[in-house]
């Protein structure tokens, strides 16, 4: 089984990437294949509501966007999907939402290929906005008919500067528990 982890931070090597990679490492330790996608330096164009995805024979977005190439296939190949975002002005980054909007529309137009995959959100904030951003990402999973495992707290980390999140003991423990619950859920679904 495979898990796709996405860091929606425009900052390479930042706190969001740290937590996504931590969860992926734990899942790899449980025997899962992992795939990491960073949106840093990858300016994904937003959905334009052109409706082109409903006219294609295969699951694809018709926008000419090199940053989006191969994304649909990576979502389709995954049994579990982790999406992480820092909080920007109280919500997920524009890159994160552009990616999810486009994948979500293509999925709905092509057999709802996200249905019954396991999805989990990870959010990083300096101080506030975590709960709204966490809910925002979970709305995507729920509207896509995905299964969302929980943890011992919301899957959030506290940090501003690179590496700050590594000092958030409760946040790290929450991510470890999330990865364990995600692994358990995917194994149960595969039985």
List keywords for this structure.
191 residues, Rossmann fold, 5 helices, 16% strand
Question: What can you see in these coordinates?
Answer:
With 191 residues, the protein is an alpha/beta fold. The chain has a single domain (2-190), classed as Flavodoxin domain (Rossmann fold, 3-Layer(aba) Sandwich), CATH 3.40.50. Helices cover 39% and strands 16% of the residues. It contains five helices and five strands. The chain has helices at 15-29, 71-77, 94-109, 130-143, 169-190, and strands at 2-7, 33-38, 80-86, 118-125, 156-158. Strands 2-1-3-4-5 form a five-stranded parallel sheet, with helices on both faces. Helix 1 (15-29) crosses helix 5. The longest helix is centred in the C-terminal third of the chain and has 22 residues, at 169-190. The chain is globular and about 50 Å long. The two termini are 12 Å apart. The model has no long low-confidence stretch (mean pLDDT 97).
Q: CATH superfamily, please?
A: Flavodoxin domain
User: Which topology does CATH recognise?
Assistant: Rossmann fold
Q: For the record, give the distance between the C-alpha atoms at the N and C termini, rounded to a whole number.
A: 12 Å
What fraction strand? Answer: 15-25%
- Widest sheet: strand order? 2-1-3-4-5
The coarse overall form would be globular
Q: Residue-averaged pLDDT, rounded?
A: 97
CATH-scheme architecture? 3-Layer(aba) Sandwich
Structural class, judged by helices and strands?
alpha/beta
């Amino acid at each position: 089984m495979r898990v796709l982890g996405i860091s929606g931070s425009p900052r390479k090597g930042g706190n969001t990437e740290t937590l996504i990679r931590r969860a992926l490492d734990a899942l790899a330790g449980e025997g899962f294949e992992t795939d990491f996608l960073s949106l840093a330096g990858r300016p994904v164009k937003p959905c334009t509501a052109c409706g082109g995805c409903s006219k294609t024979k295969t699951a694809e977005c018709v926008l000419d966007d090199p940053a989006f190439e191969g994304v649909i296939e990576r979502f389709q190949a995954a049994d579990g999907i982790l999406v992480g975002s820092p909080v920007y002005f109280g919500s997920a980054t524009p890159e994160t939402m552009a990616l999810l909007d486009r994948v979500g529309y293509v999925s709905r137009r092509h057999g709802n290929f996200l249905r019954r995959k396991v999805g989990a959100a990870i959010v990083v904030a300096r101080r506030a906005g975590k709960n709204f951003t966490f809910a925002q990402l979970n709305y995507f999973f729920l509207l896509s008919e995905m299964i969302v495992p929980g943890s011992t707290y919301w899957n959030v980390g506290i940090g501003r500067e690179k590496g700050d999140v590594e000092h958030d003991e409760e946040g790290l423990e929450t991510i470890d528990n999330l990865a364990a619950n995600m692994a358990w859920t995917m194994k149960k679904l595969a039985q």
